[in-house]
Write a structure and sequence with these properties.
Bound molecules: flavin-adenine dinucleotide
Strand content: 15-25%
Number of domains: 4
CATH superfamily of the largest domain: FAD/NAD(P)-binding domain
CATH architecture of the largest domain: 3-Layer(bba) Sandwich
Radius of gyration: 25 Å
Distance between the termini: 60 Å
Oligomer: single chain
Shape: globular
Number of strands: 19
Structural class: alpha+beta
Largest sheet: 8 strands, mixed
CATH topology of the largest domain: FAD/NAD(P)-binding domain
Length: 491
Amino acid sequence: MEKWDVVVVGGGPGGSYAAKTAAEKGLKTVFFERGRKPGEKNSSGCGLGQRWWKDFPVEMEAVTHMPSYRKCEMVVINLVDEHDRLRYRSGTTGSDLCAARFPQGRGMIGASVYRKDLDPYLAGLATGAGAELRNSTLVTEAVIEGGKVTGVKTEKGEKIAAEVVIAADGAMSTMARTSGMRNRWEGGCTLAPQLDFSCDEQKLDDVIGNAEWVWFGPFYGAYQVNFRDGFHLGAGTWVDEYWDTNPKDIVRKVFNFPAFQAMCRAVDAKPREFQAHLLPWLKKPPKTYTGGMMLVGDAAGFPCPLEGEGIWHAMMSGRIAGETAAWAISKGDASETALREYERRWKASDLGKEHEFGQEFVDLWHNSIFDPESMVKQIQIMLEFSMLHPFSVVFDWGDAHIDCFNQHLGHMLDLVPEFGDFGKKYIAPLGRGIWPENVKRILSMVKPRIPVLNRLSDERFFKVVARLSRGLAPYLDPGAKQQAPLPRGSL
Ligand SMILES: Cc1cc2nc3c(=O)[nH]c(=O)nc-3n(C[C@H](O)[C@H](O)[C@H](O)COP(=O)(O)OP(=O)(O)OC[C@H]3O[C@@H](n4cnc5c(N)ncnc54)[C@H](O)[C@@H]3O)c2cc1C
């Protein structure tokens, strides 16, 4: 029987990065891909965030030379009301802080590429490092001996042994199921259909430029990722809770918006392909290791709980799993107890940080775009807020400017109580993520405005505030750790 140090199942971003890392550590590594080549079985394309410049700078540089590459410097938000009318369009660009975050002002520069470009490139890094890639090979089950995963079986009937198996076989993970780690996702898998379009490159440059678009309304949100000469429109719904809502209908709804149709006409868009893929979107990833095996990427439930980005997460977890495999093999121990180290490592990394707020992020979505009734009100409130923008007030010539301002302010204040309950329940819990140093800076700015307290030293002032506000106390207690968690909803 064939025997390898590391067998990786899946040639997506997670599998390729795990195979690359293991091979670079000198381990005899093979990875299996069911498609004829990596990228063949994935939904069309992806947006890649700015943090790639920090964590995967070589790969991100290579992405900028891929045929389907489009730079992304802003996100354009389209708000559509319940009558399908576009009510608000605005772009989020980076601030000076974003620009300064990485060299060459790259802190606000992301990328979009098709998976047919990205996945083969990443697999090439793994084979370049010495890993062997076997395409057109479906792994059908985990081999279990002595209560531990000791290898895999393929549909060709081969049985392949490994010191460590890394399962990077995506959302439907055969390895997680056949090893007994789980049968189905508990609360949190989404189905994401996508409509892919070809279009005129020059017109896309003129109409959209270097931007991604999102469409929010009192239905479910949709995203539009733009490539060199094409784009796709997609939306995700949690399959267990919204089974009656066919996600295809959401894509069709956005497709039929007059504003979307106008954009399609302007760039000569032609529908090219309809696809649908599962995407885990969880409050918390379940257990990610067992004896002899680690799960990475979608197989582990790692996509970002705020916006479903998952390629960075797959590569980060692939890297950590490859390193942990090397560590376990060097100790001669790939037992379940030893591989707990994998979970310790990813939790201590930026990947773990992403999931600390999983509950809050998912709750926020469930109660905003996934709740059409609440979303009708929220859109109205957001529109009122936008009218308080200096330019909106200047160009509202319906009355004297100062009267217009007060009319809008009054109208917004009428609506605030309706938003109050949502804000208290789903925005305030995120307050526990505010850094204590920032809370102190804000309080220090307020202090001079309260003469009776301004006489106190900063230290004494913080103590008084901590005594007056139980919610702020964990931030202001000198003994408390940085980012001490606040009780939910206490700010
Ligand atoms: C519609 C949609 C849009 C998305 N958009 C973005 C985005 O814009 N940006 C972003 O960062 N993320 C995005 N994501 C998430 C992202 O695609 C995933 O998080 C990411 O692909 C996970 O990588 P992975 O390697 O874990 O799994 P996958 O990319 O799913 O790769 C798994 C690989 O394993 C192979 N495989 C599966 N089973 C077997 C088997 N039994 N034997 C052999 N091979 C097998 C598959 O063919 C596949 O190549 C999107 C997801 C969806 C569904």
